[in-house]
Amino acid sequence: MRVSHKCHKHTIFLLLVWLLYLPLGGAWAASFDKGVLWEISRSGRPAGYLFGTIHIEDQRVIDLPASVRRVFDDSKQVALELRLDTQNMGRMMQSMFASKHQLSVRKLVTDRRLYTRIEKAMAIRGITPEMLAQMRPWAAYIGLSMPPARTGMAMDMMLFLRAEKAGKKVIGLETVTEQVDALSGFSDVDKLAMLRDAVKNLDQQPNTMEAMIKLYLDRDIAGLMKYSSLQGKSLNDQRLEARLERQLLTDRNYRMIERIKPLLKKGSAFIAVGALHLPGNEGL
Known about the structure:
Blueprint: H1 5-17, E1 37-40, E2 48-53, H2 59-62, H3 66-74, E3 77-80, H4 86-95, H5 105-108, H6 112-124, H7 129-134, H8 137-144, H9 155-165, E4 169-172, H10 176-184, H11 188-200, H12 205-217, H13 221-232, H14 238-266, E5 269-274
Parallel strand pairs: 2-5, 3-4, 3-5
Antiparallel strand pairs: 1-2
């Protein structure tokens, strides 16, 4: 299958943006409801830093504050949700398309009107009809849940490239397989419901994105969580909302924290994850 430059750019971008833009619920702890940069320190060891990102390419968030740039530059190692090297990007891209024994969007969506709407929306996002037909439902859901890419340079990729250029050790807190498993582990009924919901909310994306950017720039992570929770209500399915939150947020928090602990013990670590991973009783 031939992939156009425009399609490749959008595909790479949606790999980076899939979590924070997805509507999730959850409780939050009031003592940690403001701020996206947190220092973790103990006597006699270099401090570590936990930074909440927003996986989008808007220049307002790409331009890091001086305080973030300073601790990033001073850190010896950088940890991201996923190491964004060429090998991992290739693996993730390959996983987005159905193998012979996997369900594709074309096989799942039998409602012609719904499929046509998905096809038109994905075409605007650089995904050809031929590619869409072979895409796995979770990949199409992510694509529909965000606006078209312009540059492909989300904050996470910018941090990765900056760390690589500086010669820092870059660590992935998760593997491609773990991230794909979190996205794909839903029933066919749930996958279809998620696609319908994403199509239903297409017209609201500009307003939703702008609201999330404003909350992020205000460093209001509790507000960001509340807003995301309200967006998730559009599914009208509490069971599915809870499962999305558990698989895409809570379970991953528990996995990532175990891999973060050794980095903090060593010290001088800059750990960057989606801001929605920070707040809450089960947040990082």
